[in-house]
């Protein structure tokens, strides 16, 4: 949601936006202009070409300075992480993993779906709703005990990693949606089949070849708020690189939420006010659901103890980062 001139500034100062951060860019530009005026006054023989070099140097300094609110990142890096696609984000690299399918729930489900398609002469009959058939869902449910997430999935009736049909099996449903929307499988005339793109990738790179393309599709195009019931206004997908970088640094969900609040203050202020919790508390819950539970656990990057209270007291989120996380995503900061 775009702030209007008279709205409270997203930085939390309590001052109107027009009198606070709206003008920060203009102030920085004005400061550079004053510096150039002083340089010209002291060096009257400078040519326009020389001034252009000085200006570019000043702007480069401004864009690459460390910002405390960004945990020491520069505006240039933060801009890239928010606006560039995964393959062009500065200081981030993705590496295809060499793992067993059971190291990632998503990859395990991909293997089951592709195998069922190939074992049925390249065509897997869908349900009338366009979902995966019951036999495929059953196979995916049976592998839960082989996955790291099984440590905390003790109640199958409410688990996102098992279910009697695709509608009740959130993790499998997300995997099928990712495969289909990223163009690796298609649903045509009531049957799922591999596309040429999917066949080519499978033949050249095998199962592991799907991991990074599906990861990047999830980051860039998947609806992170799909069916979770929280506000659609909160686009925490823009924080993906910042959040992953911070988690690789300290592994604390509580600290991450504080850092996101400081670096992206408008995420909290964009939330509608409700009577059950503060905007800050709701943003924390959205980060836990969309980033951790629905994303990182699905890809095999983490597992989380679901317990929220101990002896009647609220406890910090117990997040365990798995080796796959740092193997696939690396930061050069």
What would you say this structure looks like, in words?
The protein has 333 residues and is mainly alpha-helical. The protein folds into three domains: 17-91, no CATH class; 101-220; 236-331. It has helices at 24-42, 48-63, 75-83, 105-119, 134-142, 170-181, 196-205, 211-220, 240-250, 253-263, 265-269, 279-299, 323-328, and strands spanning 92-94, 124-125, 185-188, 191-194, 302-305, 309-310, 313-314, 318-321, 329-331. The protein has a three-stranded antiparallel sheet. It has a two-stranded antiparallel sheet with strand order 1-9. A two-stranded antiparallel ribbon has the order 5-8. A hairpin with a 2-residue loop joins strand 6 and strand 7 (313-314). Helix 4 (105-119) packs across helix 6, helix 9 crosses helix 10 (253-263) and helix 10 (253-263) packs across helix 12 (279-299). The chain is globular, with a radius of gyration of 24 Å.
Write the layout of secondary structure elements.
Blueprint: H1 24-42, H2 48-63, H3 75-83, E1 92-94, H4 105-119, E2 124-125, H5 134-142, H6 170-181, E3 185-188, E4 191-194, H7 196-205, H8 211-220, H9 240-250, H10 253-263, H11 265-269, H12 279-299, E5 302-305, E6 309-310, E7 313-314, E8 318-321, H13 323-328, E9 329-331
Antiparallel strand pairs: 1-9, 2-4, 3-4, 5-8, 6-7
Helix pairs in contact: 1-2, 4-6, 9-10, 10-12
């Amino acid at each position: 949601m775009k702030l209007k001139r008279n709205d409270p500034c997203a930085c939390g100062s309590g001052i109107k936006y027009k009198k606070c951060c709206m003008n920060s860019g203009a102030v920085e530009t004005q400061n550079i202009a004053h510096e150039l005026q002083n340089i010209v006054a002291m060096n009257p023989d400078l040519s326009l070409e020389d001034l252009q070099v000085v200006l570019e140097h000043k702007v480069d300094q401004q864009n690459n300075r460390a910002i405390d609110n960004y945990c020491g990142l520069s505006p240039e890096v933060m801009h890239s992480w928010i606006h560039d696609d995964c393959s062009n984000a500065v200081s981030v690299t993705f590496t295809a993993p060499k793992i067993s399918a059971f190291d990632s729930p998503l990859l395990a489900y991909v293997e089951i779906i592709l195998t069922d398609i190939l074992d049925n002469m390249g065509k897997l009959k869908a349900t009338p709703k366009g979902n995966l058939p019951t036999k495929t869902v059953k196979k995916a449910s049976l592998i839960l005990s082989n996955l790291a997430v099984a440590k905390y999935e003790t109640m199958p009736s409410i688990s996102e990693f098992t279910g009697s049909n695709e509608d009740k099996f959130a993790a499998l449903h997300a995997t099928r949606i990712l495969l289909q929307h990223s163009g690796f499988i298609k649903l045509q005339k009531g049957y799922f089949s591999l596309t040429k793109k999917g066949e080519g990738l499978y033949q050249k790179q095998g199962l592991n070849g799907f991991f990074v393309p599906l990861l990047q599709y999830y980051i860039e195009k998947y609806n992170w708020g799909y069916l979770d019931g929280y506000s659609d206004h909160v686009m925490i997908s823009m924080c993906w690189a910042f959040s992953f970088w911070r988690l690789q640094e300290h592994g604390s969900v509580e600290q991450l939420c504080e850092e996101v609040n400081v670096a992206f203050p408008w995420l909290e202020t964009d939330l509608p006010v409700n009577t059950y919790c503060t905007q800050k508390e709701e943003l924390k819950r959205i980060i836990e659901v969309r980033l951790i539970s629905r994303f990182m656990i699905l890809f095999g990057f983490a597992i989380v103890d679901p317990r929220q209270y101990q002896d009647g007291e609220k406890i910090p989120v117990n997040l365990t980062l798995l080796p796959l996380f740092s193997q696939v995503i690396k930061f050069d900061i």
